[in-house]
Design brief:
This protein has 335 residues and is mainly alpha-helical. Helix content is 74%, strand content 1%.
């Protein structure tokens, strides 16, 4: 891994879909499909929908649908609309998350709730959820609908669990992992699994891609949590220390409390309880000095390795290679 890390970091500067030329036209079709299905009779719905969907995200989750379907030799066109379904669901969760977290910056831009208020943001999130299910009905696959409906339910539970853990310095690593498996990894898992289901892949390949998505999603979130203590607002597209300000006990904080002195541990506990950024600098210093960053990064690397190992069940192809590359990129990025 260290020998290729530098190459991976360079490739991180590319958009993920540019890693495989065969995917680029399909990815463009997904973007067109998304824009064409944001229409509404209510102008504000359409305005907010376009604002959040076009706000510069990498579209990693719909890309995973495309790669999974192609890796399983799918030859139809429903993977385009299915990718849009996943992106609509993801965008809906972002709208709701920003309201719950009272966030004012995402992807380097004002959040929708900062521009239009909480109520319109929540309701447009609901619109995107319902539009996703309208598209799924058109696809007409009950197994796919079963996976995605279950995923949206688990994601909602993960969000509530995270809310319950906020400002709780006694949150354990296991409890934290339960949150990110539901809140983040579940949609990655659903994206790769439905791509395989759409291709009518053997059960072994469906399970392999489901496991790949889950481990990739966990790795992705672990790196996100590290970046809250290492990156700048410009790199992340959100405010530095947002997790700390919201009193979220992420893994770097949980591990820092295990390894820190009693005085430093109490400072972190107090900061989690009250939220805010008054103690941001000393907490960042404690997180760095205790090795909590490296600990979390190692956990992310282990998850990326598990994701790559899951791909062994797939036939060799450029799409499988790109899935492997994405697992490396997930743990070697700065944005």
């Amino acid at each position: 891994m260290p020998a290729i890390a530098h190459i991976m970091i360079i490739k991180c500067r590319m958009q993920p879909y540019q890693l495989n030329p065969a995917i680029e036209p399909q990815f463009a079709s997904v973007n067109d499909y998304i824009i064409n299905h944001l229409g509404s009779n209510v102008p504000l719905v359409e305005k907010i929908g376009h604002y959040i969907v076009e706000s510069g995200g990498k579209r990693l989750r719909p890309l995973l649908v495309l790669l999974a379907a192609n890796a399983c030799q799918y030859s139809g066109k429903h993977h385009i609309s299915l990718s849009a379904v996943i992106e609509f669901i993801h965008t809906a969760t972002l709208l709701h998350d920003d309201v719950v977290d009272n966030s004012d910056l995402r992807r380097g831009k004002d959040t929708a709730n900062a521009k239009w208020g909480n109520a319109p943001s929540v309701l447009v999130g609901d619109f995107l959820y319902s539009r996703a299910f309208q598209i799924m009905v058109e696809i007409g696959s009950m197994p796919i609908m079963a996976v995605i409906s279950n995923a949206t339910n688990v994601i909602a539970e993960g969000e509530v669990l995270q809310l319950l853990n906020c400002r709780n310095p006694d949150t354990t690593e296991d409890a934290y992992m339960q949150v990110i498996i539901g809140k983040t990894a579940m949609l990655f898992e659903a994206a790769t699994e439905v791509g395989a289901i759409l291709a009518n892949a053997p059960k072994e390949q469906q399970e392999a891609l489901r496991n790949y998505g889950r481990h990739l999603g966990i790795a992705f979130q672990l790196v996100d949590d590290v970046m809250d203590y290492l990156s700048t607002a410009e790199e992340m597209g959100k405010n530095v220390g947002d997790d700390l300000a919201e009193g979220k006990p992420t893994l770097p904080l949980i591990q820092a409390m295990k390894a820190a002195s009693e005085e430093d541990r109490q400072l972190i506990r107090k900061t989690i309880r009250k939220g805010g950024l008054d103690d941001l600098k000393p907490v960042i210093e404690i997180v760095r000095q205790t090795g909590a960053i490296e600990y979390t990064q190692e956990k992310a690397l282990a998850q990326a390795d598990l994701a790559i190992a899951a791909l062994a069940a797939l036939p060799e192809s450029s799409f499988k290679e790109t899935l492997t590359l994405l697992a490396h990129i997930a743990v070697n990025r700065n944005a």
